[in-house]
Every structure is written in C-alpha cells, then in structure tokens.
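Running low. Any example?
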Amino acid sequence: MTDETVVEEAFENLAGEPETKAEARNGLRHMASLTMTKVADGLIDPKLVLSYLLNALGAPVFLVSALVPIREAGALLPQILLATRLERMKARRFMWVAGSVGQGVAAAAIALAAVTLEGVAAGWAFVGAIALLALSRAAASVSYKDVLGKTVGKSRRGAVTGFAGSASAALVFVYALLLVSGLVEGTVVLAIAIALAAVLWGMAAILFSTLEEPPSDPNGENKGLRMFGLLREDKTFARFVAARGFLTVTSLAPPYFVLLAGDNESGLGTLGALVIASSAASFLSSYAWGRFSDKSSRLVLATAGLVAAAAMALAIMLHLVGLSATIWAIPAALFLLMIAYHGVRQGRSTYLVDMSPEDSRAVYAATANTLIGGLLLVSGAFGGVLSFIGPVAALTGFAILAVTGGLIALGLEEAEAN
C-alpha cells in the first residue's frame, strides 16, 4: 500500500471520499494544523488561564478584566479591513500562516512576562500581547474559510474542522486533569504551558504553508468595504448574520455559570470541574456537529440555539432549588451549554463557507465577523445590565436570545442543498 493510498483512506474514514488526491492531503494538513492551534487556544485561554495567572502575578483587576474583551472583539472587528488585503493575494494561505506566527509570538511574550514581571508591569505586558494575539487571530480567521473552501470539498469541510475540535479537546482535557490533580502547581507551570502554545502555533504555520492551494485571482476592487451593501443584496446572508448575532450568547453565558457556582466551598475543585466539563463537551460534540453540519448546517444552528437555552434553563433551575452549591450541578449544565456552543461554532463556519460565492468568500467571512464583533459588545452590555439584578436574570435574558437565534436559523435556506 502506497503512502498516497494510506492518506486517501485516512481522509475518507474521517471526512468522506475525497474528489482528488490533493484534497486528501490538504484535508489531513488542515486537521493537523487546526488541532495544534486549538490546543494552543486551550493552553492560553484568556477566560481562565490568563485571568488566573495575571491575578496571581498581582496585576490590577481592571487589567485582568480587560483581557477577554480585547481578545474577543479584537479578533473580529479588524476583519473587514484585512479582507481587502486578502483579496489581493494569490496564495491566501500565507495570511493564515502570518496570523498563526503572530499568535505564537504573542504567546511567547506572555510566557516571558509571566516569569520576569509582576503587578502593573505584567498586566500591561499581557494586555499588549493579547492585542497582538487578537489581531493575528483576525488575520487567521478571515483567511481560513477562503482557504478551506478552495482546498476541501463542500460535503467534507465540517468533518475536517470538527475532527480538529474533538482531537484538541482531548489534549486540553488531559491538561485540565493535571491542573485539578494538584500534581502541577505554580505560575511557572502555566508559563511553560503558554510557551508550548507558542511552539504549537509555529508548527501549525509551517505545516499550513505546505497546503496545495489553487492560486486566487487577485481582485483590486475594495469589496472589503461593502459591508452594508452585502446585507442589502443578500437576504440569506443578512438572516444568517442575525441568527449568529443572537447565538453569540453561547459564548457570553459561561461566566454567569461560574457565578452561580461561586458559593461552592470546593473552590478550585469546582473551577477544575467546570474546565473539565468544557473540554469534555468539545471532545464529544465537535466532530459530531461537524458531520451534522455537512448535511445541514442550518439545522445545526437551530438545534444548538435550543440546546443552549435548555442548558441555561437547567442552570437556573438547579440554582433555584438549591443545588448550585454542589460540585456536580453547574458543571453538568455547563457541559450542555458548551455542547451547544460548539454546535454554533461548527454550524456558522460550515454555513458561511457553503453559502458564500466562491470569489467573495473572504469578504463574506470578514463582513460577518466584523458585524458579530459589534453584536458581541451589544450582547455583552445586555448581559451586564441584567447582571446587576443577578446571574439568574442574565441567563434568563440570554436563553430568550438563544431561542430567538435558533428560530431565525431554522428559517435559513439549506446551504448544502447544491
């Protein structure tokens, strides 16, 4: 059996029968590259790892709290401008390569700051590095869907990204177990893990650069600035953006689950259980959502919205009956929420790639992500206002938005029909 045959059979078993030998090779490279970057994401998670590390280094609270907003909005808002540059490139994989390298440099800077700085100095170093990481992630995000669409067939793209999500989650799960076990302790261990993330981003960049990508026709038009024009011209795209906007609550809700579990006397044990629940959900659901998306990404988005609402309702119910203080209750609800979150991620990515015109895929991706960056800020502010009443009120509002997003998605056209 030749190496080519082995590659084709491996890809067929994981994603389906490839149209060409090049697609099989490209598909496996996509899986390996994405797995490495997703593991890196887990090792450097701003919501948990960086916030904990920066707090341990004695940085002011306002710098700790700035990490997640900078990371989330910074990775989305610049994409409409980056799309203009991408459209002028023949080999568009190199923007993803540059984005991966930039994230690796940012991770290395954070690891260095963690072992050399403390207090305010460490805080500002982290904030600066996160800004670089977010901008680099924007470059990787705006280019990835375009490259994926050119190198992997329509009915196999969800499986490619879904496999990477599940494989990386398994590795992050092991990392979470080590943290919970007490076998590894201290900020130096976290700094080493972040340095490993930097290495993984570098390795992913090298591998991704070897993709056999058909050359693109450089487009001199400034399509990147046609954001509102696209919404007027393409009603399906506008509906997709609306659905995705409502479904952003799946990424904003987890901190409120942590607040509901905050009275638990188990302390880090509860935090560890939440991390494990999140990793387990990704491992168990990403690949399944990916295969489901290849059949109907519209139904994936609709289903995920309803599952997310059910998870929030479950968390509220557990709190109201007095069970939220038990170590298993809120992590169980979070597990269900994170399954929905990964459904939204897989569904939105596959739907956008499949519904976008081939010559404008990057512009569609950048427009959607830029708009979602703004909607994330709106949804976050909505949750923040409700949080003054309490986490139950915030989750109630988020559950309503999730159901709304699911129903909007249900009315989308089937992107996989043709």
Summary: The longest helix spans residues 268-320.
